[in-house]
Amino acid sequence: xxxxxxxxxxxxxxxxxxxxxxxxxxxxxxxxxxxxxxxxxxxxxxxxxxxxxxxxxxxxxxxxxxxxxxxxxxxxxxxxxxxxxxxxxxxxxxxxxxxxxxxxxxxxxxxxxxxxxxxxxxxxxxxxxxxxxxxxxxxxxxxxxxxxxxxxxxxxxxxxxxxxxxxxxxxxxxxxxxxxxxxxxxxxxxxxxxxxxxxxxxxxxxxxxxxxxxxxxxxxxxxxxxxxxxxxxxxxxxxxxxxxxxxxxxxxxxxxxxxxxxxxxxxxxxxxxxxxxxxxxxxxxxxxxxxxx
Length: 293
What we know:
mainly alpha; 11 helices; globular
């Protein structure tokens, strides 16, 4: 029986889940909106972030919170290395060439992850996260609360970087008109390195947040690639704030449809949202003025 309490619980769960979805999608939105690069390897970095947290917890007894902090500089360097060694080499080639190169990187990273961790599904045994909080009739798992709070913090920091710093203005300038930015003294190649680094760092932190909520395995990256693209398409290439709105919408639609409809229809509803975003508003929730902002 569907009750108001059940709907309220689903709505809160969707809000928390949507914040995490935002984090796994915002890096893809950034690289696509600023650099025009369809980074299909993005989701493998999400899974590598999850396994990074798993390894730190098992080998050094470090919590997922510490893993998130350490993942930012480490995966920023990974993204920068991908830009220097792969993306920059095919920047002048047709877009299909870059897509194939990144698809090859996705296969290599997935295969390496399978060799290291096999295809077994794992969970993050974080004992502190197994606690629950009761608030006004709602049951809130601490792991989801922490994951959502950290995801929101990362998203807000990224938004502040893009809107309130000179580096952020340079990134936005390159996204809007790279030739004009070059005339003004902004090096698009250096900005491309920074954007790829930020995309990789946000993907890895998103992976840590996902590992706090869901089981994960190397081959699961395909699912999260679909969800990241869903956030990008629904939100449009409008940057952080439109990605946040899209992530929250996707989370709410998924959880509420799971309560109101049989399970087999949940994905149908979610992808119906994708189709509606494409048909009714081809640029997503972002306006033209907000693109790459």
